[in-house]
UniProtKB/TrEMBL annotation:
Keyword field contains Transcription: no
Record's protein name: EmrB/QacA subfamily drug resistance transporter
PANTHER family to which the protein is assigned, alphabetical: BLR6921 PROTEIN (PTHR42718:SF46), MAJOR FACILITATOR SUPERFAMILY MULTIDRUG TRANSPORTER MFSC (PTHR42718)
Transmembrane segments: 21-47, 59-77, 89-108, 114-139, 151-170, 176-198, 210-230, 242-259, 280-303, 315-334, 346-364, 370-395, 407-430, 450-471
Keywords per UniProt: Cell membrane, Membrane, Transmembrane, Transmembrane helix, Transport
Source organism (scientific name): Kribbella solani
Topology in the lipid bilayer: Multi-pass membrane protein
InterPro entries: EmrB-like, MFS, MFS_dom, MFS_trans_sf
All residue ranges annotated as the Major facilitator superfamily (MFS) profile domain in the record: 23-476
Molecular function in Gene Ontology: transmembrane transporter activity
SUPFAM superfamilies noted in UniProt: MFS general substrate transporter
Compartment(s): Cell membrane
GO cellular component, one term: plasma membrane
NCBIfam families tied to this protein: efflux_EmrB
Amino acid sequence: MYATTDTLATTPATQGGRSRWLALYTLCAGMLMIVLDVTVVNVALPAIQDDLHFTSSSLAWVVNAYLIAFGGLLLLAGRLGDLLGRRNVFTAGLIVFTAASVLCGLARTQELLVIARFIQGVGGALTSAVILGMIVTLFPEPREQAKAIGMYAFVASAGGSIGLLAGGVLTQAISWHWIFFVNLPLGVLTTVLAVKLIEKDKGLGLARGTDVPGAVLITGALMVGVFTIVKPAAELGWTAPRTLLLAAVTLVLLAGFIVREATAATPLVPLRIFRSRTLTGANLIQALSSSGMFGIFFLGSLYLQRVLGYDALEIGLAFLPTTLLMGLLSVRYSEKLVMRFGPRRPLIAGLSLIVVGLALFTQAPVGGNYFIHVLPVLALLGLGGGICFPALMGLSMADVKPEDAGLASGLIGTMGEVGAALGLAILATLSATHTAASPKSPLQALTDGYHFSFAIAALIVAASVAIALTVMRPKPQPEPTTTEDLICEAA
């Protein structure tokens, strides 16, 4: 059994109104650091390659080392938040992430940079895995919670495009080292604010949920799985012997984890949590929508760079409308939409807008015009993301008990991260394969390859719409008792 609500009585929900919102801003600042790091590094990769003499294949490890640690540890980090206290895990993650960022900036060898990026991934997982659980504890009232989750969803989903702009500015104006050094003042300030503004919560204690075999199995499965996606699958193909072998290892580890969790007295991930259709459906939608969106941000950047000839700063500016629209809807209007229509309708509407935007991107030609062929797509993605992601985050935590909030927060983060890695690998591979098979001119073949991936991304997100329509059905509400009913009962 897990702790009762009495055990969890000393939580951040007891904080005053103003201090709760200041705590929320602190949590969002921590999340922004993590999200920015993903795309800010992508923009700087050519400069890093030239300076440290990476080969094209070894350069991928600057990204992959982070993804493997981050995706592999999210679920475990979320559960550690429930056991050790979410503020403790959040601040520990900030310290690790900040220290690793400084190490990345100081790196003068390939090996040191890759090792530091792996440590960064560990810190990123610890920091981000517990944030959503802390938010729903801070804001138990539905209207305030919807507004708070809207702010979090904006940072989590739109921060990546801000990273494109920041990466371009820092890399071109100073050097790639500063994309990591800027995390030092941000990390220190966020850590100090977290200690001062976020009330310390009492975890369940390791004795109430320690499951070392389960932790080893799920962490191993996620790390091997993410490695399989970002390395052999992307480079050698999905049917290559090495890819199939590692995929089999992943499945064996997952099967062992499920057996362990079904039989352990104190499981790391209680399987009862998946009895909730809402939670299960939200995580499936998170995986699919992340697959489509993350892959398109990456391939869309390549279209702007390789086909339209944009530089790093121009790419960041090009994606700015997506960030602005997503922020406006997430922060100002998402809470009103959720309170007026419930979370399901905004979720379906937002995902549908994303599907339309991705389908429209398949028409962007060689020599396309930004305002005609690109801006409408990015506007639809921003509108759709700003409407659907806050609703999705709320649904993912709707049926979760307080003692499982960290686990559920880590779970939705894990599905997003693994979905993004899987989507990027699939879409990038399909794009390259389609381009290589095309008999057209090199630039047209490259554009056709991007078009093909945009179409597949639209189908992937459309599948998430189907899940929202079928799995995420609203619960039947009891009929309201009318005056006539009361008279009949009395009679």
